[in-house]
Design a protein that fits this description.
There is one protein chain. By secondary structure, the chain is an alpha+beta fold. The chain has a single domain, classed as 2-Layer Sandwich (Alpha-Beta Plaits). The strands form two sheets. A four-stranded antiparallel sheet has the order 2-3-1-6. It is elongated and about 65 Å long. The termini are close together.
């Protein structure tokens, strides 16, 4: 089955603590999504990857929902001080969160 030419897939990588709120908002707007668990590479934190099927005319709405529900946060990682004679660690702030979103065309769609 071929999709309508105006349909897209948004691939959104979000933090797990934003997942339920984001999916609820997408469902309320009647935008289909599927979730896949994933793990971040830099901090090794649990993430979720959402596959969001959306009409091209509603991409802005879906992106706004992601923007409103996926918030950036400050977390601290422990980094060893290289100049210290003893192995001391110092907490370093790192900005995490938000959403990383990719837009993909749908070449084929089939439910089996």
């Amino acid at each position: 089955m071929s999709p309508k030419p105006e349909q897209k897939i948004l691939l959104a990588i979000i933090q797990s603590q934003d997942l339920d709120f984001c999916v609820d908002a997408l469902n309320e707007a009647r935008i289909d999504s599927n979730r896949l668990p994933s793990i971040g590479g830099f901090l090794g934190k649990r993430n979720a990857t959402l596959l969001i099927r959306v009409d091209e005319a509603r991409i802005e709405e879906a992106t706004r929902i992601l923007h409103d529900t996926c918030k950036e946060r400050i977390e601290y990682i422990v980094v060893p001080l290289e100049s210290a004679s003893l192995p001391l660690a110092t907490p370093t702030p790192v900005t995490v969160g938000g959403a990383t979103v990719f837009g993909l065309d749908i070449d084929r769609y089939e439910e089996i």
